[in-house]
Amino acid sequence: MGFSTDAIHAGQIPDPTTGAISTPIYQTSTYAQEELGVNKGFEYGRTHNLTRQALEINIATLEKGKYGIAFSSGLASIQAILGLMKNGDHTVVSNNVYGGTYRLMELIMKEYGLDFSWVDTSDTKNIENAIKKNTKIIYIETPTNPMLNLTDIEATAKICKANKLICVVDNTFMSPYFQRPLGLGADVVLHSTTKYINGHCDVVGGMIITNDFKIHERIKYLQNAIGAVPSPFDCWLTLRATKTLAVRMKQHNANAIKIAEYLSTKFYAKKVIYPGLKSHPQHELAKKQMSGFGGMISVDFGSLDNAKKIINNLKIFTLAESLGGVESLVSHPASMTHASVPKVEREKFGLTDGLIRFSVGIEDAEDLIADIEQALK
Ligand code: P1T
């Protein structure tokens, strides 16, 4: 089936009683059991929920994966992935990832005996060089948040196969509409569904997708054992949102191309970073492994002072954490999403105090450009 047909139909469970076309919100914490040891396969809300199951099948289908496992946030899904490791195991990670991912790995899980190496994975030689005897996982975010660096997924997956490692890809910035890492050889894909997949800034959620039965079994076990599950209502909202994922992504992409090209002509913008621009050092890789360039643009305006002035003067772009919603947002990564990454580490990969991140929404591009134009003035 095509992407939109799957998005609208995969995993949808019509109400068995009435045939309601919208998957019901099974808002229950537990299930009546007929007698001791006899039930309908549903025992407790943390373990089983049909609205959640519908969402898991839906998103797994969009990623062309067999299994989807839903979580109450993107970070909860990353925590579950780290549950594939044991005390003393090592992971190689992209040096630029979402700040919360860095915080969870380096500032929390390290204290529990997990080891991490932070390398520039845009050059896959750095990945090979960082592999140790105790390495278990190669974890890449591509494109990265907020520098939009790409990692070659196919090449990384090959390195993982050769070294018997698990290849994990955070696909949040592209969504399955523009990039499907499992088809390129990755073992595990994860999403902060808070972003493009839900796309309306009204749900926090996460999802893990895999084709590997053993990984699925372990993650499913952790989902129940740790208990960071999404509510039935959040699952229903996200399920409703995936139906329009294709149309939203096309519009995010079309708007972002126009805005990135506009910003590239502006003298104040020291550096405009967008994978769809020919000036992006990995534009060719972007064309190879993605079918679009997405809605995220990062721009270095040279100083904190310039960044502040522009952010404070934007009217349609709202200053807020998060991204990927229909409404355009702007953020200052150094003081917001990446504040837990030490300044010296941030600046190593170009995340300066003058950097602004635009999450381009699906409003009219002319209005968004006019908004930036008046803020620059
Ligand atoms: O916020 P949460 O749903 O827990 O997802 C965490 C996460 C994981 N991966 C990526 C690439 C992300 O961007 C995020 C969350 N990012 C933001 C909140 C942000 O504003 O960048």
Main β-sheet, in a few words?
7 strands, mixed
CATH architecture of the largest domain: 3-Layer(aba) Sandwich
The count of domains is 2
H/I helix tally: 14
Q: How far do the termini sit from each other? A: 48 Å
Shape: globular
Structural class: alpha/beta
Q: What is the strand content?
A: 5-15%
The ordered string of helix (H) and strand (E) elements is HHEHEHEHEHEHEEHHHEHEHEEHEH
- The total strand number stands at 12
Helix content: 25-40%
Task: Describe it.
α1 runs antiparallel to α2 (50-62), α2 runs parallel beside α9 and α3 runs parallel beside α4 (99-108). The model has no long low-confidence stretch (mean pLDDT 97). The longest helix is centred in the C-terminal third of the chain and has 20 residues, at 245-264. With 377 residues, the protein is of the alpha/beta class. The chain folds into two domains: 3-242, Type I PLP-dependent aspartate aminotransferase-like (Major domain) (Aspartate Aminotransferase, domain 2, 3-Layer(aba) Sandwich), CATH 3.40.640.10; 245-376, Aspartate Aminotransferase, domain 1 (Alpha-Beta Complex). The chain contains 14 helices and twelve strands. It has helices spanning 3-9, 50-62, 74-82, 99-108, 124-130, 153-163, 175-178, 213-226, 232-242, 245-264, 283-289, 304-313, 343-348, 365-376; strands at 67-71, 90-94, 115-119, 135-141, 166-170, 188-192, 206-210, 271-273, 296-300, 318-319, 329-331, 355-359. The N and C termini lie far apart (48 Å). A seven-stranded mixed sheet has the order 1-7-6-5-4-2-3, with helices on both faces. The site of ligand P1T has 18 residues, from α3 and α4. Residues 73-75, 98, 100-101, 141, 145, 170, 172, 192, 194, 204, 206, 321-323, 337 line the site of ligand P1T.
